[in-house]
Amino acid sequence: MKKAGSATPVRAFDSPEAIGKHLAEQLLGLIGRARQTEKTFLLGSPTGRTPRPIYLALARRLAETREDISHVILVMMDEYLAKTPSGFGYASAHAPWSCHHFARSEIVEKLNRNLPSGRGLRHERVWFPDPRDPPSYDRKIADAGGVDFFILASGASDGHVAFNPPGSARDSKTRIIELPESTRRDSLQTFPAFGSLASVPTHGVSVGIATIAAAKQAVMVLTGTSKAHSLARIVAADQYRPSWPATVIHECARPEILADVGAIGSG
């Protein structure tokens, strides 16, 4: 369906699990076709609450099909940073809220669990932007042929996508970002293990708006009543609006918005 006034088609689903099942089938089809043509498949991958049902559905489907996904590259969107004497470095990969921890425990381990040896995601094909040289990430992605499919999610309170806060330029690329309080509060909701706002890092390294928009295909996933306002803001725009970064979906090739009844019913 195309929601009235939306520049990008909006598809409605009964639940986050239904979105997960739909995307799992779509992604495994694309991944399978890439394998048949002996190409790698770059999957832009977020962390947090929104994509969990997607990764779980992928894991369940892979347990049934036992398909080879060793040619998949996970292009992780961002990571929290810690200050070091020489600048910034990754937050501890052992912290339950770190994106490295999420990628390992919520994506790689679950997708690989029921796959034969050699058919799973490879450690060296889980990519993160390097805070020591953020621009190198865009070059690395381009050299690999570009992101084939980007899964996107929106911050509930400020529309951030990855760590791109309101005000991010359309041509922004991978960079270190000072996280506004609104984004940090969303992070606290996503990862209660932080304990308090004071424990949420103040900086992160993140793909930029231009990095996302360069993907060959993208979906914006919005689930739950907390995302109703974001859905309304996205649908009200017809192109990228810096005041609500999640509107980047309108700039992507072959874009689609997937929302559940919680987000749509209250929006």
Task: Explain what you see.
The protein has helices at residues 16-36, 52-65, 99-112, 135-143, 181-190, 209-213, 228-236, 261-265, and strands spanning 10-13, 41-45, 72-76, 78-84, 87-90, 126-127, 149-153, 175-178, 203-206, 218-222, 255-260. It has a 7-stranded parallel sheet with strand order 1-11-10-7-2-3-6, with helices on both faces. Helix 1 crosses helix 2 (52-65) and helix 2 runs parallel beside helix 3. The chain has one domain: 3-Layer(aba) Sandwich (Rossmann fold). With 267 residues, it is an alpha/beta fold. Strand 2, helix 2 (52-65) and strand 3 (72-76) form a beta-alpha-beta unit. The protein is 33% helix and 19% strand. The two termini are 16 Å apart.
Instruction: Output mean pLDDT.
Output: 95
How would you spell out the order of helices and strands? Answer: EHEHEEEHEHEEHEHEHEH
Strand content bin = 15-25%
Shape from CA axes? globular
- The name of the CATH architecture is 3-Layer(aba) Sandwich
List how many beta strands DSSP finds: 11
- Main beta sheet: strand number and arrangement? 7 strands, parallel
Helix content: 25-40%
**Strands side by side in the biggest sheet:** 1-11-10-7-2-3-6
Q: Which tags fit this structure?
A:
267 residues, alpha/beta, Rossmann fold, 7-stranded parallel beta sheet, 4-stranded antiparallel beta sheet, 8 helices, 11 strands, 33% helix
Summarize the helices and strands and which ones pair or pack.
Layout: E1 10-13, H1 16-36, E2 41-45, H2 52-65, E3 72-76, E4 78-84, E5 87-90, H3 99-112, E6 126-127, H4 135-143, E7 149-153, E8 175-178, H5 181-190, E9 203-206, H6 209-213, E10 218-222, H7 228-236, E11 255-260, H8 261-265
